[in-house]
Design brief:
The protein is an alpha+beta fold. Helices cover about 25% and strands about 10% of the residues. The protein has a domain of about 45 residues. It is elongated.
Length: about 60
């Protein structure tokens, strides 16, 4: 009896619309759907960092 290879179905990134495999990433705050690793690294994480620091005066932050 041969082992059946389980083929993973590709999913479409909600940002760039390219196909990705695996679980994907939470694309909030850029999109409300899953995204690929590249969009997560280049768009989602920078947007989260920007949102985190928005409204803060960076000159008054404590330096360690």
């Amino acid at each position: 009896m041969k082992d059946k290879k389980i083929e993973e179905k590709g999913k479409t990134c909600g940002i760039c619309e390219e196909i990705y495999y695996g679980f994907g990433n939470n694309a909030e705050p850029v999109s409300d759907v899953r995204c690929c690793d590249l969009c997560n690294d280049t768009k989602v994480i920078p947007a989260r960092i920007k949102a985190f620091y928005k409204g803060r005066n960076l000159n008054t932050m404590k330096k360690h």
